[in-house]
Design goal:
Layout: H1 10-25, H2 29-37, E1 41-42, H3 44-47, H4 51-65, H5 67-76, H6 85-91, H7 103-114, H8 118-121, E2 122-125, E3 131-132, E4 136-143, E5 148-154, H9 158-179, E6 180-181, H10 187-202, H11 204-217, E7 224-225, E8 238-242, E9 246-248, H12 252-257, H13 262-280, E10 282-284, E11 292-295, E12 300-302, E13 308-310, H14 313-327, H15 331-340, H16 350-365, H17 374-387, H18 394-413, H19 419-434, H20 437-443, H21 445-470, H22 484-514, E14 521-522, E15 525-526, H23 527-554
Parallel strand pairs: 1-6, 7-12
Antiparallel strand pairs: 2-4, 3-4, 4-5, 5-8, 9-11, 10-13, 11-12, 14-15
Organism: Thermoanaerobacter pseudethanolicus (strain ATCC 33223 / 39E)
Keywords: Cell inner membrane, Cell membrane, Membrane, Transmembrane, Transmembrane helix, Ubiquinone biosynthesis
Pathway: Cofactor biosynthesis; ubiquinone biosynthesis [regulation]
């Protein structure tokens, strides 16, 4: 076997062979052929398999390959621009529930991370996990301060295993890039992007920071509760958060029995995701029912922050522009926004793309708002994205997946729930909120402050320029070919500049003169100051006349 140098590490080689064996067993032996036999293989070989049947096989293969591939699959399930929709549906089903590690091993990790015995930190620690996933296990406990908490502990050696798998995946991606002819994807780029997200999940302090930001963002929203992070009990491999007593939103019958208003919960859950996207630029990337509780006082509480999406101000504005263009049935604007996003490849057939986008927009126009489903919309949009190989930002596709999940949760609580109707109400409220003078001044305070500083300095700048003019310190030195026409134009241009400066100086000087109490007055104002204004006005009119009348006649 002619392996790359990186695979000559004994453990990595063993894992590499194991991966190829599992791929072959599950019907993906052609990938092994690409990796081992060499040569250039046309991309159509990857398309020759029945994708409808392959979806389930891909999911089961990833589950068999272990935590790295499960997580990679889950992350890929947000990338409708890369994966066909039917396979996306299968990837979304990836199960991350695994047999729990024995407590002795977990205890050793916990005590090593916290640098002390469990009894030094916890009054009580339940040895039976309440959840067990591929990366970590979650336990109930009570810290020394008497607070009930949940403690997430990373499994032993999971970091080493994932890092080894990432090395293998990066090298496999490199080989695929070299040996697959006409591949529309950059496999290395995709693996790099997914690896970064996965490595972030291995650092529990990152998840803690996410939770902290959510807590700050929702501080003023009475219907949302975000649990507190206990940093004294948190490390890269241990995360300790406040225990939230509540009922999972997937337990509809119990919520009804307890008397909760499910319509209200569904609406507030959708409102919260719009706030996250529009106001905060940080949104929950995996708001499935298992990650959402309803507290005893009816608040919505998120309890897992491993996957979040980020949208900077420009991305949010582009998304709003895109939705606005869709709403106005403006295909040309849709194309322009997509181009600004860097989504359209140079070889994209714009005519076909416009046609497909028109079909989507007609679907929105001909369907009552309450009947528009984000899930259906996402399927239509992502099918078009995949067909034309558009390159959407990861945050955008993750956002669509989050909205689809929130819609699914909302409809499981209230069959009449419409996320589109909530979106309409949210946009209306946000619009009214943003047209207030206070909001405008607040958002533009920095620019306003800079403008005020510039205006304050303007009289001194003008005075400096006037002083230099008087002393003949301002000189324009240009070497040109002997051309009377150019010399004439240059003289006119310089004259306009000088006259404009003089007019500005007269305005400033006249303003100062008007403040003097003495002297001859006209209509109650200092005559000299008024005279200065008149002269400045005449000079400005002359400049405008030269620019807009004479110059246009010449043209």
């Amino acid at each position: 076997m002619n392996l790359p140098f990186i695979f000559r590490n004994k453990n990595i080689t063993r894992r590499y062979k194991e991966i190829l064996k599992i791929l072959t067993k599950n019907g993906f032996g052609f990938i092994s052929d690409i990796l081992l036999k060499g040569g250039h293989i046309p991309f159509h070989i990857l398309k020759s398999h029945d994708y409808m049947g392959a979806g389930e096989r891909i999911r089961k293969t990833l589950e068999e390959l272990g935590p790295t591939f499960i997580k990679m699959g889950q992350l890929l399930s947000t990338r409708g621009d890369l994966i066909p929709h039917d396979i996306l549906l299968e990837l979304a089903k990836l199960q991350d529930d695994v047999e729990p590690e024995d407590f002795v091993t977990i205890k050793n990790i916990l005590e090593s991370e916290l640098k002390g015995k469990i009894s030094d930190f916890f009054i009580y620690f339940d040895e039976t996990p309440i959840a067990s996933a591929s990366i970590g296990q979650v336990y109930r406990a009570k810290i020394k301060e008497g607070k009930d908490v949940v403690v997430k502990v990373q499994r032993p050696e999971v970091s080493q295993k994932i890092n080894a798998d990432i090395i293998i995946l990066k090298n496999i991606a490199k080989i695929l890039n070299e040996r697959i002819v006409d591949a529309p994807l950059d496999f290395v780029e995709i693996v790099d992007e997914l690896a970064e997200s996965l490595l972030n999940e291995l650092d529990y302090t990152q998840e803690g920071n996410n939770a902290e930001r959510f807590r700050e963002n929702f501080e003023k929203e009475s219907y949302i509760y975000i649990p507190k992070v206990y940093w004294g009990y948190t490390t890269k491999r241990v995360l300790t958060m406040e225990y939230v007593e509540g009922i999972s939103v997937k337990n509809r019958d119990l919520l009804v029995k307890k008397g909760f208003d499910l319509k209200k919960i569904a609406r507030e859950g959708a409102w919260a995701i719009f706030l996250q996207v529009y106001e905060f630029g940080l949104f929950h990337g995996d708001p499935h029912p298992g990650n959402i509780l309803i507290t005893n006082d009816g608040k919505i509480s998120y309890i897992d922050f491993g996957i979040v999406g980020y949208l900077d101000k420009s991305s949010r504005e582009m998304i709003i522009d895109l939705f606005k263009a869709f709403a106005e049935n403006d295909i040309e604007e849709v194309i322009e926004v997509l181009s600004d996003m860097g989504a359209i490849r140079p070889d994209t057939n714009l005519r076909t793309l416009k046609s497909d986008l028109s079909h989507i927009i007609n679907y929105f126009y001909n369907t009552p708002l309450k009947n528009i489903s984000v899930n259906d919309s996402m399927r239509k949009i992502m099918s078009t994205v995949y067909k034309h190989k558009l390159i959407l930002p990861p945050g955008f596709t993750l956002l669509l997946k989050s909205l689809a999940t929130v819609e699914g949760v909302g409809r499981s609580l209230d069959p009449d729930f419409s996320i589109s109707s909530v979106a309409k109400d949210f946009i209306k409220e946000v619009y009214l909120r943003n047209i207030s003078l206070t909001k405008i001044l607040k958002e533009n305070s920095k620019d306003l402050h800079k403008a005020i500083i510039v205006l304050r300095k303007l009289p001194f700048k003008i005075q400096s320029i006037m002083t230099k003019l008087i002393k003949d310190d301002i000189k324009v030195r240009i070497n040109l070919d002997e051309s009377e026409s150019l010399r004439y134009d240059l003289n006119i241009m310089v004259n306009k500049v000088i006259i404009s400066i003089i007019a500005s100086a007269l305005i400033v000087a006249s303003s100062l003169v008007l403040t003097f109490q003495g002297g001859y007055k006209i209509f109650g104002y200092n005559a000299l100051g008024l005279f200065g204004y008149v002269v400045a006005l005449l000079l400005c009119l002359w400049v405008f006349y030269r620019i807009f009348i004479i110059e246009r006649r010449k043209k």
